[in-house]
Amino acid sequence: MLRWKQLTQSLFFKFSASFILVGLVPLSLLSYYAVQSFTSHVERYTTNNLRQMVLYMSYNVNSALTKYDDISKLMYTGRYDGYVEGSDENQTRKVNELEQINSVPIESFLKTILYSDPFIRNVYFVRSSDMKLYYQLRTNAVLIPEALPLQDWLSAMKERPRNIAYFAAHDETYFARSDKQVVTIGRNLIDISLPLEKEPHVVGTLFFDVSTDMFNQFFSEMKLNGKDELYVLDEQGRFYFGHRNNAGKTVTVSDQDDGQMLALSEPIPALQGRIVTRLSKEELYRQLATTRTAVYIAIVICAVVLIVMGVWFSRRLAAPIRQVIQKMVTVESGNLDTHVEVRSQDEIGRLGHGFNRMIERLQAFIDEAYVAEIKQKQTELNALKSQIRPHYLYNTLEVIRMNAVHSDVPEVGDMILSLSNQLKYVIDYGEEWVPLQQELDHLRDYFYIIEVRFENRYELRTHIADDVRLSWSVPKLFLQPLVENAVQHGLRPQGKGTVGISIRKQEDRLAIVIVDDGVGMEKEEVERITARLAEEGAPSGHVGMKNVQERIRSLCGQEFGLSVTSRPHIGTSVTIELPIKEVHDDDSGSARGR
């Protein structure tokens, strides 16, 4: 936390962050806007193209169905060879007695229908008087007349006998060997020479099968994928044709877009229905997603390059200034025999020249003004060198720490800071009681060195209850020996572990529990330790715990002290009970002055 705070307060950190933000934020916003605009344009362009394709398909399908409607009307208008039959001819007599349609034999008329369009595969005519079947086939396949669904077709046409009928796509199951799929078109031959009646007089019915290749030639341009859907529906919403065989079924198809499918619909007037396509957006925009991903990757690469360049530029700018700071620390320690290496003539270089000139002038001033005084006090300094006074030791440790920090060795600097804090805490005499906060700070400094020494294999955790005040007074240096015991005897044998400290208020007492998850102790060993803590006189074992026990009892009374519990392979717990006591001026004067 301290290292991060120092880093964020650095001028070069602020410069790097500003440099990165100024470049990264506009780049990100502009790239995002560009990708979204490009995506929206492509999606809109693709949708418009697909809509035009569906419109074109609906037009072609409608034209084809209209053409077959015209072909079916040849029974009334005549043949393609130019012959036109009069409307007053008795069609009933021609069909039933002469077996003719428009003065042409039925078989010849069917053959004319068969070859009027390349997609017509089979033509049938059913005479109403005796249900006699006439047919012409384009292939040499064997027709099974009993398998023809004539009754179904005729029943469907009774609802609107004067209109053309379109039957949904189906397999040619009425042929012995055929794997083709066709749609069937039917029209009744009505004798219009008779007087107009409510129910028309149907002489016969013409049916012809049209290969679904006729539709496929229009739909192939869509290049449908596995998730796409295409339907041709009649006016009642029944399936007529599509890439999935749902012949004759009523299909519920949504014409609205959703999150996964793009829906497009156009009417087919000849069928009084519509064509509906539902296209998977995932498949439709897959290439767009790939392009978008590539753009995002390019943005990330640019951002990384920008960050690296910002950090590199900041380091290049920071290195000369760090060198000046290090030299300043050296001068602060009393060593004037130093200078800054100047490698450029910019502002940083001029700062280095100025620092070198300052050192030279300072050295000359000292030589001229203080040389005599220094010689007079040389003897006193030599005597003082043999005495390690606390404040000199603190200053020296601080200089070493600063050198470590400025040399990018923060861990060494933090260790020296922890050691310096511990020395101050231990060497300050004349106080038996200190604030709980001060004792915990000292313990954290001590345990930090333990963590570094043993490569962070040990961890210290503290929990302080909400009703505990950190200003309460506790005996000085009573926690460290117990934590040291936990590490030495509980954690080190197993190589790693955690020491936990829990502090809570228990009635009128302060209860402190030190627990470790180390190797633990057998019941007999716990009983021996408890007995030794209760003994009078100098300790023969567990000196640290015995000393803490004696100090607490001498300061607080016999009702206070330690208690130990442990279980093998689980850990050990030491509970300390102290009276609740506020820190007074005579107890913590030095602590507040730190």
- Which stretches are low in confidence, meaning pLDDT under 50 for 5 or more residues running? 79-87, 379-389, 585-594
Number of DSSP-assigned strands: 18
The percentage of residues in β strands lies in 15-25%
Roughly what is the average pLDDT, rounded to an integer?
78
Shape category: elongated
> What does the main sheet amount to?
5 strands, antiparallel
Provide a count of the helices.
19
- In which range does the helix fraction lie? 40-55%
**How far apart are the termini?**
21 Å
Using only CA atoms, what is the Rg? 51 Å
The secondary-structure class comes to alpha+beta
- Strand arrangement, major sheet: 4-3-7-6-5
Membrane topology: Multi-pass membrane protein
Pfam families: HAMP, HATPase_c, His_kinase
Catalytic activity: ATP + protein L-histidine = ADP + protein N-phospho-L-histidine
Protein name: histidine kinase
Structure description:
The protein is of the alpha+beta class. 49% of the residues lie in helices and 20% in strands. It contains 19 helices and 18 strands. The strands form five sheets. It has a five-stranded antiparallel β-sheet, sandwiched between helices. Strands 13-15-16-18-17 form a five-stranded mixed β-sheet. Strands 9-8-11-10 form a four-stranded antiparallel β-sheet. Helix 9 packs parallel to helix 10 (347-369) and helix 13 (390-406) packs antiparallel against helix 14 (410-427). The chain starts with a helix and ends with a helix. Mean pLDDT is 78; it is low at 79-87, 379-389 and 585-594.
Secondary structure elements and their pairing?
Blueprint: H1 2-8, H2 11-72, H3 74-77, H4 91-98, E1 100-101, E2 104-105, H5 106-114, E3 120-127, E4 133-137, H6 150-157, E5 165-171, E6 181-190, E7 202-211, H7 213-219, E8 229-233, E9 239-242, E10 261-268, E11 273-280, H8 281-284, H9 286-332, H10 347-369, H11 371-376, H12 378-384, H13 390-406, H14 410-427, E12 433-435, H15 436-453, E13 458-464, E14 473-475, H16 480-491, E15 497-506, E16 509-516, H17 523-534, H18 543-556, E17 561-567, E18 571-579, H19 585-592
Parallel strand pairs: 13-15
Antiparallel strand pairs: 1-2, 3-4, 3-7, 5-6, 6-7, 8-9, 8-11, 10-11, 12-14, 15-16, 16-18, 17-18
